[in-house]
Amino acid sequence: MNYDIIIIGAGPAGLTAAIYASRARLKGLVIEQKPMGGGQVLNTYEVDNYPGLPGIDGFELGTKLKEHAQQAGAVFEEGDVCEITESSSGYVVKTNQQEYSAYGVLIAAGAAHRLLDVEGEKELTGHGVSYCATCDGAFFRDKIAAVIGGGDVALEDAIFLSRICKKVFVIHRRDQFRGAQVLQERLLSLENVEILWDTIVEKIAGEDLVEELHIANVKTGEKKKLSVQGVFIAVGIQPESQAFRQLAEMDSAGYFIAGEDCRTSRRGIYAAGDIRTKQLRQIITAAADGANAITSFQEDFLQILDK
Ligand code: NAP
Q1: List 136, 157, 274, 289, catalytic entry
Q2: How far apart are CA 268 and CA 163, in angstroms?
Q3: Is 181 exposed, middle or buried (0-12, 13-18, 19+ CB in 10 A)?
């Protein structure tokens, strides 16, 4: 066996698991897609709810998490996991680069943005349509942008963009936001932000670049065209679990069914962070999962690990 445990993903869940595994003197490997580490937090402008680090820059927090795991002795390899198969004593994890074996596998591959699924979205992605305000916001300095969605990400993106853009529309399909109250209050106090409640986007239009949004009010039925140059889509996330289908039980949305102990339906396979069924998907709950998953693994493999 190459390793005791292989951790797939280097977001807060995977990195915390790596820290706990190293401290437990387990032979662990973290497989990460990109060398940066940090996961979705890297694209967050400001994280205001991670205890002890109020207002920390998301990039800085992601980097610190990775540094902490490295200092603890975690080993990292880059690769895209394509297959996990069971062997006589554990699992074989195949990436596009290599093959590794371990007694247990912790899947902490996280989640990615969901598509809005409207006309023009695919064609204009990268030409005014974006899913990451902190990555692409600077292209829209003094321009007009629209953020679509009403969750934490949409509110954070709109607040961030209000500092760069001349005007920001927030387009939400209901008359109430889902995102944190503190973000709602901050957003509502901004003069260059206009909220379009009960509104959906029917089409993103433009020749080579985004020019306008075709929107409709779901209550009145009124349709309008809105002149914008940037469209930031923040309509939720979906689990990055396609490569792991059949491995263990998932819900209909593709999240691994696992409790706080992070044990999935298959012995030796654990799921931590945004990829598992849970009530609250935040950095702190992902980090907690990483710690719990390693503890579960140690309990389950006590006899083998003691040898
Ligand atoms: P989210 O909380 O699921 O919110 C998605 C938003 O998009 C909702 O307002 C939803 O509307 C809207 N929406 C979904 N499908 C839509 C569609 N087809 N058309 C129009 N609107 C649509 O997702 P998120 O904001 O990406 O956040 C993901 C997770 O990360 C959440 O659990 C969030 O709490 C967490 N997060 C935490 C922090 C933090 O702790 N600092 C920061 C960012 C994100 P409805 O409201 O009508 O459903």
Answers
A1: 136
A2: 47
A3: exposed
CA-48 nearest atom, ligand 1: 41
Ligand 1 pocket, mutate which of 175, 237, 280 (most atoms under 8 A from CB): 237
The 10s digit of each residue's pLDDT in 35-52 is 887 888 988 888 989 999
Token look-up 């992601």 returns: 62
- Retrieve residue 27's tokens: 């032979």
The alpha-carbon radius of gyration of the chain (Å, integer) is 21
Residues in a beta bridge with 83: 94
Q: Whose CA is nearest to atom 40 of ligand 1?
A: 282
Residue 198 token pair:
């009960």
The Cβ of residue 21 has, within 10 Å, a number of other Cβ atoms equal to 30
> Measuring CA to CA, which residue among 58, 55, 39 is closest to residue 134?
58
Contact 8, 93 (CB under 8 A): yes
Q: Decide: 103 and 4 in contact? Cβ < 8 Å.
A: yes
CB 68 within 8 A of CB 12: no
Span 269-296, pLDDT tens digits: 999 999 999 999 999 999 999 999 999 9
